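User: Structure tokens for this complex, please. No commentary.
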Amino acid sequence: MTEKLVIIGNGMAPGRMLEHLFEQAPGRYAVTIFNAEPRVNYDRIMLSPVLSGEKSYEQIVIHGDGWYIDHGITLYKGHRIVAIDRGTKAVTSDHGVTESYDKLVIATGSVPFIIPVPGKDLPGVITYRDLDDVQAMLLAAQSREKAIVIGGGLLGLEAAAGLALRGMDVTVLHVNSSLMERQLDPAAGYLLQTELQRRGIKVICKANTKAIIGNGRVEGVELDNGTIIPATLVVMAVGIRPSAGLAKDAGLAVNRGIVVDAGMQTSDGDIYSIGECAEVGGMVYGLVAPLYEMARIAASHLAGDSKPAFVHSDTPTKLKVTGIDLYSLGDFADGDDRQEIVLRDATAGVYKRLVLKDNRIIGTVLYGETADGAWFNDLKKKAVDISEMRDTLIFGQAYQGGAPLDPMAAVAALPDDAEICGCNGVCKGKITSTITAKGLTSLDEVRAHTKASASCGTCTGLVEQLMSLTLGDAYNPKAVSPMCPCTELGHDDVRRLIKAKGLKTIPAVMQELEWKTSCGCAKCRPALNYYLVCDWPDEYADDYQSRYINERVHANIQKDGTYSVVPRMWGGVTNSQELRAIADVVDKFEIPMVKVTGGQRIDLLGIEKEDLPAVWADLGKAGFISGQAYAKGLRTVKTCVGSDWCRFGTQDSTGLGIRIEKFMWGSWTPAKLKLAVSGCPRNCAEATCKDIGVICVDSGFEIHFAGAAGLDIKGTEVLGLVKTEDEALEHIVALTQMYREQGRYLERIYKWAKRVGLDEIRRQIMTDTEKRQAYYERFVFSQTFAQVDPWSERVSGKDKHEFKPMATVGFNQAAE
Amino acid sequence: MGWYPIGDISDIPLRGARCVKTPQMNIAIFRTGENEVHAIENRCPHKGGPLSEGIVHGNAVTCPLHNWVISLETGKALGADEGEVRVIPVRNEGGRLSIALENVMMVAAE
Ligand SMILES: Cc1cc2nc3c(=O)[nH]c(=O)nc-3n(C[C@H](O)[C@H](O)[C@H](O)COP(=O)(O)OP(=O)(O)OC[C@H]3O[C@@H](n4cnc5c(N)ncnc54)[C@H](O)[C@@H]3O)c2cc1C
Ligand code: SF4
Ligand code: SF4
Ligand code: FES
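Assistant:
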């Protein structure tokens, strides 16, 4: 006797299951399918090509109406099952059809997640799941107006690319800092973003949607920073949730999805579940490969063979946007027991990364060139020991077996007229002959004499190889010490290339300059962050996680993990009101130590991190802002009492000091910057051992710089004498800006000055008026972005998470 | 051993850390650039520095006090330094995080 098999949902998983079942046990079941969608089974993953116009709906149908007839299947199109009665073993649809079963398969798939913001129900807000959604998008696209896609994952990006091809002006809002962060590392995410932007799709990362706005219809999206982006269509593609409500109502075990065993059986022996709604081994899946495996197993069990069991395997992810090649597989997180092989080819836009463990591939990210994805996947699956081919592995399969190419031999083999530097049109012969003729020994000299590698710098490696070939052991490329083990480039090269190539994010720098690690280290990240802040003050968004703790929480960490707080006291001047406010804060928060600093202000030590915002709030009420005593930036301007009080005073040194501090506070510099102004050569403010100092004299202001009184002790050098306060300020600011633009991260001004040369600095700041003014203006421009008091920002809630523990557990609390 | 929910992965900044307080110790919960979550005792093996305040890179953190680099996976100091902190098991279920703690470490429920 035929048994009755009822299936809820007619998606990709049950379609595949039936194919297997009809093969293994033809005629055993009479099949009835209920499908909420009013159509047959189609290839859902190909909806994107339908959206972009590369395919039609007819082309993506898997089983046409004829197939259902041939197999005697009753298909209820547009029927949603609303109840499962396990007692009577029957299901009921929203149109009132009841059907009894011997075996039931729940394959309800998933539902798109809708972020619960105001306006989510406005007409014009669509999700991306089925053909109806595609049709709604195509209709909206006829307007050729603005569309917003919320979600920069696989679905969102495919929707964005499709809508753009249909002529819409598309903006993608992504909450994370990097696109497709679950499949791609930030380096590949950056490449992807660049490519999408090249295609005219705007991408905004770290974008938190606050509301969808519109009167009766979508008019735009508001972000939590207040930005409003207009749009007539909003596609929400922020993720999916297994559709398990029906099973839960029926009393089946449901966790994230419908819980099944390795044989796809639910907690009820007559009910199976497959597809995105099923949870097996604690996992739910969103790609078809594992769902097809579930289908195969469920079919075997239904056919009477209960041996096959589901085992987890990683599925590669690819983005189906024509012209973008991207491949991600497995586990690509870093780890001590793992090594990585990274290949970056910036000009070709290629990034490849293999993650190895015990000489076996465990993860792969490929961008730009994915032909070897399948081969890597195969090696991973078979857990092939790759030690033999390790050196050439990343070049792919075609490369194996051939003689590995020695890069040096390749350069030696080049003819003399081979072009080495494309930017400046310099050939090999020119470089080698100049090296010999002029006796050049360093890369900088070669650059100066031949211009080779002096522009974009991508041929630097080739030029260095030529130097090694020509000079033999006399050439020591390590003369430039690299910034950190993540790169071969020194600080100066990195700074130069950031400007030359217009690199404006940390991932951009790491990709274009071919970093050897995927996300840098504690040495290079803070340095890059500073260089980008300095070079692109208006465009670069500070990368908080690349700052040392002190600059992240705007206080100084102490040996016991507490913090010290130093409010600004302009020029070291204070009054009774400020002192009273400080006294009150000390009492209120029981601050254990109050100390006068060497920079003429007051240090409050021993404050618990959690108390910081409250301490700042109280200090803020009294008018204090952060003294930035923790910053690689402007710290203090010490002053003496000058002509207002002192009988020797020649100028208002206090006033000038305060003016300088008010002008320069908030600016970031390569290393800390401490200033002082003394009212006469008796120098009570100790200006001649500061980074920058001023000695007032009757005829004006003598500007000093490059002093040191720390690990090294060094008196200042004289920059020059100026007549007025205004001039003094302009020169000091210009000097600071020159240092900001040229200094290496953590290089104090005296070391920078020694490297660059005092005469050169005097020439640019004292003699070259135009240069000085340009430096001055660039500083002023960058200050418009930098002069924000970090304390009041945090009192108003910025980086809240930083000051609170994530959780407190175990105090009178039972485990789950 | 028991599992204690501590919040959502999105509570931790990418390449950042948060702190969880328990009666016996503070635990630092890290989220790497690759969205991996790790938990270790929030005390540097060198001189007790709060590791949760360090810079996170790859699968390691650099201590804010004297720059030791600690593996988030093994809790061991990397490079030339020697030392180790406790690793606490973390479970990530669709972003919901919990950590495993020995019950003996807990204050008994009333
Ligand atoms: C645009 C897009 C692109 C994708 N690209 C890829 C890709 O490149 N690679 C990849 O591997 N995967 C991709 N996927 C995912 C893949 O399509 C899904 O994993 C797969 O289709 C899920 O199959 P399923 O059978 O579990 O569920 P579905 O295919 O979702 O089918 C479930 C069906 O059940 C119906 N249903 C739900 N509840 C009920 C009810 N109570 N009663 C009756 N019927 C009900 C629904 O209407 C639906 O038709 C993509 C998905 C989308 C939307
Ligand atoms: S530096 Fe000169 S002006 Fe200033 S307090 Fe000392 S003696 Fe007076
Ligand atoms: S001198 Fe040394 S011990 Fe004293 S505060 Fe400075 S760094 Fe610390
Ligand atoms: S306490 Fe961590 S390095 Fe010293």
